[in-house]
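To illustrate the input format used throughout this study, we show a single complete record. The first block contains the structure-token representation of the backbone; no residue identities are included at this stage. The design step must infer an amino acid for every position from geometry alone.
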């Protein structure tokens, strides 16, 4: 029997995952946590075989939790289950020791398969995530072999997905249109939009559009 702890700040999501996993018959959810700090406390009390964690959580997010768990309980497997497919999140979770990364729209069979593979000591990444990893690897190779030209003020401040979404916002597309075009949920697009505005320090769309026009280095990152 595989013992698991679930960490997600949405109770209804945790309950749904718990039902899905325990229906398999070989997985037992022994504790739940609404954030990373609670998850770490639960792990200290009852060391599980695997921690299934979201990325975005209050107090202590999934990345911080992954690092803390791997430092203190290296034998506990960690499977990230997130709605975010940003390269930055994926690569950082791997660097910190995550054993796998799945998107929340994954199917039940793949979810169970991922847990089994991770518990066998291997890494598991869903198809979409694997493609991102391959592209990241190829891009890294290109950057390594080609001389990179950098100038002050041209540092990347947005992830690839955020740049893609910001481009569509700049062109006047709605959250619904963007979600349809990218094959994502409106909630996912809204989350990216919030992150973009937070990074740029703006409070509304008007300020967001002005920031693009006033920052040539930012506009260069867009796919217009």
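Output of the design step:
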């Amino acid at each position: 029997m595989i013992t698991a702890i679930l960490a997600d700040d949405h109770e209804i999501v945790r309950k749904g995952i718990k039902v899905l996993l325990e229906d398999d018959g070989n997985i037992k959810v022994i504790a739940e946590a609404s954030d990373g700090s609670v998850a770490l406390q639960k792990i200290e009390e009852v060391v599980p075989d695997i921690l299934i964690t979201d990325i975005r959580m209050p107090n202590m997010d999934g990345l911080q939790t992954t690092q803390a768990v791997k430092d203190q309980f290296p034998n506990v497997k960690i499977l990230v289950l997130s709605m975010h497919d940003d390269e930055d999140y994926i690569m950082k979770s791997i660097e910190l020791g995550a054993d796998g990364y799945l998107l929340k729209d994954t199917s039940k069979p793949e979810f169970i398969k991922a847990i089994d593979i991770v518990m066998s000591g291997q890494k598991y990444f869903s198809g979409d995530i694997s493609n991102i990893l391959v592209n990241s690897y190829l891009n890294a190779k290109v950057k390594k072999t080609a001389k990179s030209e950098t100038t002050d003020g041209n540092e990347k401040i947005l992830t690839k997905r955020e740049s893609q979404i910001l481009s569509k916002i700049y062109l006047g597309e709605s959250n619904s249109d963007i979600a349809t075009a990218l094959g994502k949920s409106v909630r996912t697009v809204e989350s990216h939009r919030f992150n973009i505005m937070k990074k740029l320090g703006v409070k509304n769309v008007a300020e967001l559009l002005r920031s693009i026009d006033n920052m040539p280095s930012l506009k260069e990152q867009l796919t217009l």
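Structural context for interpreting the output: The longest strand covers residues 27-33. The domain at 160-219 is CATH 1.10.10.10 (Arc Repressor Mutant, subunit A).
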